[in-house]
Specification:
Blueprint (H helix, E strand, L loop, with lengths): L1 H68 L4 E4 L4 E4 L18 E5 L10 E5 L3 E18 L2 E5 L5 E2 L3 E2 L1 E2 L5 E2 L16 H11 L2 H6 L11 E16 L5 E9 L5
Parallel strand pairs: 3-12
Antiparallel strand pairs: 1-2, 2-4, 4-10, 5-6, 5-7, 5-8, 5-11, 9-10, 11-12
Length: about 250
């Protein structure tokens, strides 16, 4: 009986051993299969990541391209030459694409216009020895909590004409003026000032400056209301002097 018992136990142990080995084999296969799935998922995630990066780069490039489209320019065609300013202006002269035949062109700027970022491109096959000079006009303005009374038809100070420098791209770079450069406004009789304000702005504006003693007293301010760009050149073949004046009118208030 003891011998039979031992044989049975030995047989059972062998079965258990084979079962354990079979379970280990199955577990190993599952781990290998899982590893393969993980590697596949990892590859797909990497692929998606690269694709997303490409989409992001494309989006950035599109944004740059779109922003370039929103850069507005103003081109004036004088026939023998064209002048392009790198900012957008409003003007009756721009309503028609025909050649401008007047010697003076007036452009209206917006509050966002910043002359220090302005450059001018001049293109011509019929003009020689040309140059561009710049000046400006300052006027009195009276402020009243956002509203303002601009005396642009009264006393002024004009800056000296200054030749514009040309950068490496052949563009004429406009100048920004310091307060010192446009200082020296002429002495103004305050009674005459109030009389002009009454005529052009109304009695309520006279009350705003009733107590001021000089132009240095708030709410009186002095600022640039016009920029001037003069173009001089000689016509090829005839050497006839050609002069054109571009006036940019700036808003003085906010």
């Amino acid at each position: 009986m003891a011998l039979i018992y031992l044989k049975n136990m030995t047989y059972k142990l062998k079965i258990i051993k084979w079962l354990v080995l079979l379970q280990c084999f199955i577990s190993c296969n599952e781990r290998l299969s899982n590893n393969k799935i993980s590697e596949s998922d990892s590859t797909e995630l990497q692929h998606n990541s690269n694709r997303n990066n490409n989409l992001t780069n494309t989006s950035v490039n599109n944004e740059i391209h779109i922003s370039d489209k929103h850069i507005n320019y103003t081109t004036l065609n004088f026939g023998s030459f064209t002048v392009t300013l790198n900012q957008e202006y409003n003007s009756d002269y721009l309503k028609s694409k025909s050649i401008i035949k007047t010697d003076t062109v007036i452009l209206n700027a917006s509050l966002e216009t910043d002359i220090k970022n302005e450059y001018i491109t001049l293109l011509s096959d019929n003009l020689t020895n040309y140059s561009i000079t710049q000046s400006c006009e300052t006027s009195i303005s009276i402020m009243n909590e956002g509203a303002h009374c601009d005396l642009t038809s009264w006393a002024h100070v004009y800056a000296n004409w200054t030749p514009l420098q040309i950068n490496k791209s052949g563009k004429y770079m406009c100048m920004a003026y310091s307060e010192k450069a446009i200082s020296g406004f002429p002495t103004v009789n305050m009674d005459s000032l109030k009389a002009h304000v009454r005529k052009h702005c109304g009695i309520e504006w006279v009350n705003v400056i009733q107590d001021v003693k000089s132009l240095n007293d708030y709410p009186i301010t002095i600022g640039i209301n016009r920029y001037f760009f003069k173009i001089n050149g000689l016509s090829k073949g005839t050497n006839i002097q050609i002069t054109k004046l571009i006036i940019i009118e700036m808003p003085m208030g906010c």
